[in-house]
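Lesson 9: reading folded outputs for more than one chain in a single document. The general rule is that every protein is listed as its sequence immediately followed by its structure tokens, and records are never interleaved. Here is the first one.
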Amino acid sequence: MKNNRYCVIMAGGGGARLWPRSRRSMPKQFLDMDGKSVLQRTIEVFQEACPGISVVTVLPEDFIDYWKEYCLRNNFICPQILVKGGITRFHSVRNALAKIPDGAIAAVHDGVRPLVTPAKVRELFDLAEDKVGVIPVVPCVDTMKVLKPSDLDGVWEEAGAEADRSVLFGAQTPQVFQSEILKDAYGQAYDPAFTDDASVVSRYGKSLSYVMGERLNIKITTPEDLIMAKAIAALRNM
């Protein structure tokens, strides 16, 4: 018998760091992606992958009412628990986990990764039934350089030996865990080194399982990423 399944959709950021100043009034998770917001498309993947999944959506406090109105206006039917984002991603996840019971399987996913496939989501949930946590990764294909800023604006210089790309992988989401372990791990004190959920659980002393992710499961961080995501979605729908 499968455990109850939950997904925490992390959409609590303002999204202004790498976005043009002219577009900063609207966080990128709410931007249009061929008729639907990026966030709606992300949530729909989990609805398709696991019908009946419980959704916890983390939002910027100033956009909670906006999202409620968006869902109503666009007839987006998805019962959700809405949670206010914290001062960091760590605190936002901790806020969301307070809404999830023990004995469940919980995924944490970036709200701006709408291209993960339902098949991959199902695979990760199924694997997590008898593991501490399952993390999707993709191998680094570029030559990795260790650099530091130089005195010239926009120019970098070598800062050490080249990294061995054969042992380097990029972590993606959704990262899927036994809920009680994830909640206990997030009871630790915050550390800036916590860059994802895997780093939090690893610090807690738990061994995780890593599986191949999907190259096209990109995170929309820049305007170019949104263009690419639209193109990929269009090709999938051909």
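And here is the second record, again sequence then tokens.
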Amino acid sequence: MQRLSGSMGNAGKVFRDGDTVVRPTGPHDEAVNALLEALAAAGFPAPVPIGETADRRRVFEWIE
């Protein structure tokens, strides 16, 4: 796994794992997921959520 820099709220807690990104859950997850899914449906290359880990971290597809 590769730690990703950036994101003030999740600094040090976001990782790239192959073709996915794993990050902690947060209070705005439902709204963020809805936004990302709407962007992807409109053709924008947005990282849509694809699941959750056993320890309840969110998994997204990696976009180069």
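What the second record shows: The radius of gyration is 11 Å.
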